[in-house]
Amino acid sequence: MANAAGMETALKDLARVIIPEKKSQGMVQCSVGSNLADFEILQELGRGTYGVVNKVRSRKDARIYVLKKIKCSHLPPQRQKEALLEVLLLRRLNHPNVIGYHTSFVEKKSLHIVMEYAPGGDLQGLVDEHKRHGSYVPEEEVWRVCKELMMALKHLHSKRIMHRDIKMVNVFLGVNRTVKLGDLGVSRVLDREDDMAQSRVGTPLYLAPELIKRQPYDFKADVWAAGVLVYTLAARTGPFKGNNIYSLGHSIVHETPPPLPKTYSAALCGVIFSMLEKAPALRPSVDELLRKMPRPKSHSVDRREEEDEEASLRSTERRSSATGGG
Length: 326
Description:
Elements: H1 2-18, H2 29-32, E1 39-47, E2 51-58, E3 64-71, H3 77-92, E4 101-107, E5 110-116, H4 123-133, H5 139-158, E6 161-162, E7 171-173, E8 179-181, E9 188-189, H6 209-212, H7 220-235, H8 245-254, H9 266-275, H10 286-292, H11 303-323
Antiparallel strand pairs: 1-2, 2-3, 3-5, 4-5, 6-9, 7-8
Helix pairs in contact: 1-3, 5-7, 5-10, 7-9
């Protein structure tokens, strides 16, 4: 009975937090839907222990969305916290390279989050497709994915948010294969400029050496995970291997990844391997990496956004020079 009462309290807390919904982007709750009856389920996209993700069509505006259902009545306390955190963080973010949040509601003892649908699937699907055809992802495409992922991280980090679970299946492809970073369930907000995280979360293949060694870590851990992802995108396999979690950890901390296929330029390989620098202090920041990105032939963002990005990078450089930071 006590557990049931606690769950009811948690559900009420969730409802209080997610209502009223964000209106700054014109995403008023009723325009998309506010209950299950407002959505038609088209296809199941994924299922886990505590929930299911469906592709749905809104009966309010006839558009396609993703509806993530989390069964709160079955969630242990830590997972309840993660579900609530995901809603809170999604509401704070608004960027073309981050999966968009539309609304959320509690119904039938479950939390439902309505998010942007990415029609291109995830990066793992892209790699699997190239494996089937015996081909490699073109270099221009790898550069573009890397740049857009860095832009997504720049947006998160500017709000003091670490993603902490960057991996192939959490990076989606929208219209024109635009990168869309998703799944913020285990993200962490750093409150102060010098704050460091200490809890070890994430997917083992993508854990930075400092996490393996149980040392405090910061935004550079996201850069490492992004490096593992971009390496995997290019090589079609991960940079580190192990028969178990311990041998994998040893590989991450002590071994150098195999060279990338010769089809890729020295410039691209250099950027990727810099992201996999073992020492966080020597690993480049997101801003430093963005300065190394070549200008693509086609853009997923308009010229004004690009000019804003360049101005922001110049401002960061000036602040870094003034404080002696890197």
